[in-house]
Specification:
alpha+beta, 7-stranded mixed sheet, 51% helix
Length: 417
């Protein structure tokens, strides 16, 4: 068993470290965007702070803090730099799934001493060819957020043959950093240029058999009979599903981004005058007060919703342990739908209440609000997770109404990261 670097670290202390970094993150927003991911210095800071170890099991040197703690951490980091929070968050979040779904031997090998980070994409990389002792992986996948600092990658690959529904068989796998090559192909989108979402390629990479789980989609893992991680670690958190929890991760970042924009707007209230006579500080103008207050209320509402969704996720995990009632596909979609609405509300608040009333100078190249507008337009508005909103509504309804699932459509429309 590996002891974590700070055995007595508390969630409150962890969050305080993120808050303390805010001004530094704000200062490095532009550099992060230019580099396409945050600096090595910040990476070392995150290592010391313990951010990457939140979901790593205690026996492997992790802190085993819960989903609400991780949600709060991402809100605070995104309040300093959205791109940094996205890259760090999506390199850290997937420890939860690996600690839940893989067996003890695989976890021991994958987590090691707890120095672990893992980007992930639900779209398949290409073929997985079974070998005598594992699988050979070949292919390419894009949007691997968090990959610049990842030690591992969790992904999907296509197995030979078809499943019981006549669809392609899928392998859920983990691969070490030595198995892929990161491409220099990120930074051309309108926003999220610093999110570290480069593509990776696999060319004849090999993983052992116990690092793969056949006929499994990461967005729909059946946990109704419990999980290897729950039995191994005894913590209900390692018995849950992933789609809702992943959407909570994105929503937390968008809430932090909205607070980031509100902080800049507040600074403008202090330093800018109204556009019409009598020229007074915006802070003293009733209209600006109303616009600011409305945005604050909406963002606080979104924050309450995403934290509530995180608590509900934990309650569903605990419910199975306490009563045997499973965490269902419908439960997962309900949590995800809440978080998805948070993402859209955060974006709508920034673009309709803050950016619209800030003045055109706030849209100048390199301005903080201009960068946030671009980042949120990609991360909170046009991300594939939000584009699947109506599909998720239908899935939620079908589950609630007792209608059969459309396996073909669900297989095609997996959310990508």
């Amino acid at each position: 068993m590996t002891v974590p670097p700070e055995p007595d670290l508390t969630p409150a202390e962890l969050i305080a470290r993120a808050v303390a970094l805010r001004s530094r993150l704000v200062e490095q927003q532009a550099a992060c965007e230019d580099r396409t991911y945050y600096s090595d210095e910040l990476h070392e800071e995150f290592l010391r702070a313990g951010f990457y170890r939140i979901y790593v099991p205690r026996r492997f040197g992790g802190y085993v803090f819960d989903v609400p703690t991780f949600t709060r951490l991402l809100i605070e980091l995104a309040r300093g730099c959205v791109n940094t929070a996205w890259c760090m968050g999506l390199a850290s979040a997937h420890a939860l799934q690996i600690a839940s779904w893989w067996d003890e031997q695989a976890q021991t090998e994958i987590f090691g001493d707890g120095d672990f980070r893992c980007a992930s994409v639900a779209a398949p990389i290409g073929p997985a060819t079974p070998t005598d002792d594992g699988y050979e992986l070949n292919g390419r996948v894009a949007y691997c957020s968090g990959i610049p600092f990842s030690t591992h990658y969790m992904g999907q690959a296509v197995l030979p043959g078809e499943n019981e529904h006549g669809l392609q068989r899928m392998l859920l796998f983990v691969a070490p950093k030595s198995g892929w090559t990161m491409l220099d192909d990120w930074g051309d989108l309108l926003g999220m240029k610093g999110s570290g979402s480069q593509s990776i390629t696999f060319e004849g990479a090999h993983i052992p058999a116990h690092w793969g789980i056949e006929d499994t989609l990461m967005v729909d893992v059946d946990v109704s009979e419990g999980t290897p991680g729950l039995r191994l670690h005894g913590n209900p958190m390692y018995g849950g599903r992933a789609l809702g929890c992943f959407t909570i991760t994105l929503a937390a970042i968008m809430v932090g981004a909205a607070y980031n924009a509100l902080d800049e707007y507040e600074s403008m209230l202090e330093t800018k005058l109204t556009p019409l006579p009598p020229m007074i500080p915006r802070k003293l103008d009733p209209d600006y007060q109303r616009w600011y207050g409305r945005a604050l209320a909406k963002i606080a509402t979104a924050e309450a919703a995403v934290l509530g969704a995180a608590e509900q996720h934990m309650e569903l995990c605990a419910r199975f342990v306490g009563t045997g009632e499973p965490y269902t596909y419908g439960d997962d979609h309900r949590i995800g739908c809440i978080a998805r609405e948070v993402m859209l509300q955060a974006w709508d608040t920034v673009q309709s209440d803050l950016f619209r009333t800030a003045g055109s100078s706030a849209g100048g190249k390199g301005q903080r609000l201009e960068r946030l507008y671009r980042d949120m337009s990609i991360g909170g508005n046009s991300h594939r997770n939000t584009l699947l909103r109506d599909w998720a509504f239908r899935e939620l309804a079908r589950e609630r109404l007792g209608l059969p699932r459309d396996h073909a459509r669900a297989n095609v429309q997996q959310p990508r990261r």
